[in-house]
Amino acid sequence: MRTPARVIVMGTAVFVLAVLLSGCDNTAAENPNTPAASAAAGGVTAPVEEIRDLLPADVLDSNLIQVGSREEAPPGTARDSSGKVVGYEVDLMTEISHILGVDFEYSYGDVGALIPGLQANRFQAANGAFGTNAERQEVADFVNYAASPFAYVAVADRELDVSSLDDLCGLTVATANGTQAANVAAQQVQTCADKGLPEMVSSTYANTNENLLALKSGRADIYFTPSVTALTVVASDPTIEIAGVDADLPANSLGVSFLKGSPLPDAFAAAINYIIEDEPDVYAGIFERWDLPQQFLIEHSEVNPSH
After folding, report:
1. What is the CB-side half-sphere exposure of residue 279 using CA atoms within 13 A?
2. In a domain, 282, yes or no
3. Is residue 196 part of a domain?
4. What pLDDT is attached to residue 12?
5. Is the pLDDT of residue 258 over 70?
6. Beta strands in 29-71 (DSSP E)
7. Has this prediction a pTM greater than 0.90?
8. Percent of the chain surpassing pLDDT 90
9. Where does the secretion signal sit in this chain (predicted)?
10. What does the alpha-carbon distance between residue 178 and residue 167 come to, in Å, rounded to a whole number?
């Protein structure tokens, strides 16, 4: 059966809507806007009833959860050569869908529109290499599924050595709009000034591709991002490199977000913990398939983890 796609306009962001039918493999093949889990991703094939029972009655009745996600946040989500959305987050969300026994309907766009989309009730959950922080937890609830240290990406022939925030003083730094990295970079601008260090300039862009374009065009010296993104872009482009990984900054907790007070986080946390504890090979395999180190794995998922 072919799943129709719709386009939703959210402010300046255009979102493509598609349905992930957890029990219908040919849907993804027919509709390029439907996320496509890796062939080896299907570790859980039937709902786990005690976890499904944590869902609210309206979700159980509709058998559907609407999810906002980033279309281009590799390796979490990105379009492959055939135009399908693939990535480790697609694989993980597919497992969660199987455990909960519900379908996920996706809307795609930039990270800056995800929390506003939750607040406007355009979708009930959001993901896309989406990190949690204190500011975001004031308006949204988060359930973590991985942890990613921060990294500094640079053009290879610049031979920059950057391993701490103070090393950014005197440089122009690019980050993705609305992310934890953008918040940290904005704060570091003032820190450089307070310490009497060379001026740092912070610029934000809509997505990974725009940040890389700024880097390669010379508009930015450093692309500051979670290492989950840095590892992927460096692996696919020999002209850029990881100039350093910040060992002092706490790792960025990546997860799924929900409107504050939503009834969904407990069910998602239980589903993720089921994968971690009862299907550890499936959990580790998702990250291994996308060439991510095992340091990204967490031992336990929770609602609103410390950051």
Report:
1. 21
2. yes
3. yes
4. 31
5. yes
6. 64-70
7. no
8. 58
9. 1-28
10. 22
Backbone angles phi, psi at 24, to 5 degrees: -135, 90
- CA 37 – CA 77 distance, rounded (Å): 11
Q: Which amino acid is at 102?
A: V
If asked whether residues 59 and 133 sit together in one domain, one would say yes
Q: What is the pLDDT of residue 229?
A: 85
User: What pLDDT digit, counting tens, does each position of 39-95 carry?
Assistant: 444 578 899 999 999 999 999 999 999 999 987 777 888 888 898 889 999 999 999
Nearest Cα residue to 266 out of 8, 51, 11: 51
How many domains does the structure of the chain reveal? 2
Q: Are residues 36 and 133 in the same domain?
A: yes
Residue ending a domain, among 204, 224, 245, is 245
Cβ neighbors of 40 (< 8 A, separation 6 or more) are 285, 289
* pLDDT at res. 78: 84
Q: Is residue 303 part of a domain?
A: no
Beta strands 78-79 and 85-86: pairing type?
A: antiparallel
Question: Where do runs of H (alpha helix) occur along 101-149?
Answer: 114-119, 134-137
- DSSP letter string, 63-102: TEEEEEEESSBTTTBEE-TTS-EESHHHHHHHHHHHHHT-
Q: Which of 69-78, 125-134, 253-262 has the highest mean pLDDT?
A: 253-262
Residue 210 is assigned to a structural domain of this protein: yes
Note down the domain range covering 289: 6-148+252-296
Residues 53, 129, single domain; the answer is: yes
